[in-house]
Amino acid sequence: SAFAYCDNLTNVIIHNGVRDIGLFAFQNCGSLKNIEMPDSITEIGFSAFVDCGSLASIIIPDSVVNIGEYAFSGCEKLVSVKFPKGITNIVNSMFRNCGSLKNIEIPNSVTIIGESSFMNCDGLTNIKIPCSVISIKFKAFSECYALKSVVFENDSKLTTIEPYAFEACSGLTSFEIPHCISNIDDEAFLNCLNLY
Q1: Is the pLDDT of residue 87 over 90?
Q2: Does the pTM of the predicted model rise above 0.85?
Q3: Taking the CA of residue 59 as centre, how many other CA atoms within 13 Å lie in the half-sphere pointing to its CB?
Q4: CA-to-CA distance for 130 and 90, rounded, in angstroms?
Q5: Exposure b/e, 76-104, CB count within 10 A at least 16 = b
């Protein structure tokens, strides 16, 4: 929590050589708008940027291999994210309550979309699921009210959609289930009132 609650912090440049951004490092830095991370960073800790309400975009270097749960949760103005190419897991609650998030491109190295990872991302309208994803976890896209389109790449390896994964996605009007899927859990699409 090195810089937690530093309300006047607006810009951060992390110099090359730093390897880890620790847990709660920039928690609740409400004025933080920009952060530049070097290619030496390999890990972003648990809740590192939680509730940074002014952060609008972030580029995560390809050197990053681990990102902690809740890393960007509650970043209300976050619009776009560039993921590192080798990331395999979008962890639990990574972008939960990021209501402005619109532009995401999940890399084809990802196999798991974690619990509540995009829950209550009101601005998310379209999502493309790469063929590498095998499981969409509990409440992953729950309460994404504006979500209209979920597209799976050809040769999808998806096997499981867990409970409440797309709960209350009232913007969804259709959903094409990949042929490879073996398990859609109870109430995965609960309260998707416009889904026919």
Answers
A1: yes
A2: yes
A3: 10
A4: 13
A5: bebbebebbeebebbbbbbbbbbbebbeb
Reply yes or no on whether the pLDDT at 142 is more than 80. yes
Segment 30-47 mean pLDDT: 96
Smallest CA-to-CA distance from 76 within 58, 43, 52 is with 52
- Eight-class DSSP state of 15: P
Residue-wise DSSP of 25-73: TTTT-TT--EEE--TT--EE-TTTTTT-TT--EEE--TT--EE-TTTTT
Query: In this structure, what are the phi and psi dihedrals at residue 149, rounded to the nearest 5 degrees?
Result: -140, 130
Could you give the CA distance from residue 12 to residue 181 in angstroms, rounded to a whole number? Answer: 43
Q: What are the counts of helices (DSSP H) followed by strands (DSSP E) for the chain?
A: 0, 15
Backbone phi, psi, residue 120, to 5°: 60, 35
Q: What pLDDT does 145 receive? A: 96
In order of 6, 55, 57, 126, 187, the CA distances from 165 in angstroms are 35, 26, 25, 15, 8
Residue 157 to residues 126, 130, 164, Cα–Cα distance (Å): 20, 9, 20
Diameter of the chain measured on Cα atoms = 53
* Residue among 78, 83, 75 nearest 28 (CA): 75
Q: Which helix (H) or strand (E) holds 104?
A: strand 103-104
Does residue 44 contact residue 35 with C-beta atoms inside 8 Å? no
d(CA 117, CA 15): 29
Two structure tokens written together for 76:
């209300």
